[in-house]
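Hi support team,

I'm opening this ticket because the web form for multi-chain structure prediction keeps timing out on my end. I have pasted the exact lines I submitted so you can reproduce it. The total is 225 residues across two entries, so I didn't expect it to be a heavy job. Is there a limit I'm missing, or should I split the entries? Thanks in advance, R.K.
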Amino acid sequence: DAGVIQSPRHEVTEMGQEVTLRCKPISGHDYLFWYRQTMMRGLELLIYFNNNVPIDDSGMPEDRFSAKMPNASFSTLKIQPSEPRDSAVYFCASSYRGLNTQYFGPGTRLTVL
Amino acid sequence: RKEVEQDPGPFNVPEGATVAFNCTYSNSASQSFFWYRQDCRKEPKLLMSVYSSGNEDGRFTAQLNRASQYISLLIRDSKLSDSATYLCVVSTPNTGFQKLVFGTGTRLLVSP
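Hello R.K., no limit was hit. The queue was backed up. Here is the completed structure from your submission:
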């Protein structure tokens, strides 16, 4: 059974460019989460969706960040314009019925130069 | 103050040693507790849940003290493969589901 799939695995871009991260949750899971991980701040929840609807985006750092979930099997996290301080590993996770076990994707390592 | 605090380590131990990690949390409304494991450059994975009565899974024992808002993880007979970062995780109520709050992790290095 496939786990959470994320793409790209690595992204290197220049400041000011638009970055789009993609996620496919585990089939049947109705919750999807986007996290960001840095050495200083650890793993932080950015936004989560329930049945494709954004429920809480209070963790999104600023208006440059946006997330969508057009259907149950696909979500995107977009940063426009990107800045060097956005460099981090971005994880997508999914769970069933909000049960506590969240399954993480392999992450996207983003470097903004 | 961080919502979940852990000693970052690293803890350097020889194979076969027993090692313990501690974690404190600040939100008394927290309801569920977990330890996740994260290998270098990999995603976090659930290691075990933590129950009020304490629970064991093979070489791993987790304990919770709600009064002190303190969680622990004990690893007995450490293996080289236990080398990883261990994340203390607490869930708190949030708009109808339990939001997970992660500690920054404690790094464990087991040497031959």
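A quick check on our side: Chain B has no helices and eleven strands. Let us know if the file doesn't open in your viewer.
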